[in-house]
Amino acid sequence: MQQPENTVLVATDETRLDLVVPFTTPELTRAAIAAACRMGDGLYASIRLIKVQCVPYPLALNEPPVFVDFLRQQLSSFHSTLPLTSEIHFAREFDPGLRHSLNEDSVVVLSYRKRPWRTRNERLAASLISAGRRVILIPQENTHA
Predict the structure, then answer these.
(1) Which residues form the domain of 92?
(2) Among 51, 84, 98, 110, who pairs with 23 as Cys (CB 3.0-4.6 Å)?
(3) What is the DSSP string of 54-105?
(4) CA-to-CA dists, residue 139 to 2, 43, 75, 111, 118, angstroms
(5) What is the distance, to the nearest Å, from the Cα of residue 87 to the centroid of all Cα atoms in its chain?
């Protein structure tokens, strides 16, 4: 079925581009948010900043080893030119916890430092890609060399 040429399609929250930035380190997270802002500029996009807090097995999942208020404060220091929401997810392991928090159409934006070896974020990106997720890796120059 063809739509008339003068039909206007209206975007809703369900059609918003879901850019997901996992919290890794403060510096790399800021770089990933900045990159997501550049990519989503001019698009109907929003950023979800996701902190996956690993909870060791002796504790119940709803009893993290870190105060939740501290985690909220940690996430509140990040700002964006796009709509930004922060989420905290408790999980036994980081990678499965992050995968569980993604929507079907989420685009994960990760920043990493260039190293001679594969960094944790590069391994995370490879894991997400092998699980069929969309990932954008943003290399950062090593400023401490």
Answers:
(1) 26-140
(2) 51
(3) E--TTS-TTS-SS-HHHHHHHHHT---SS-EEEEEEEESSHHHHHHHH--TT
(4) 42, 23, 22, 6, 12
(5) 10
User: Two tokens at 13?
Assistant: 């929250």
Confidence of residue 15 (pLDDT cuts 50, 70, 90): low
Q: Which residues, other chains included, contact 11 with Cβ-Cβ below 8 Å and sequence gap of 6+? A: 44
What's the CATH code of the domain at 56?
3.40.50
Q: Phi/psi at 35 (nearest 5 deg)?
A: -65, -40
Q: What is the pLDDT of residues 25-79, one digit of tens each?
A: 999 999 999 999 999 998 999 999 999 999 999 999 989 999 999 999 999 999 9
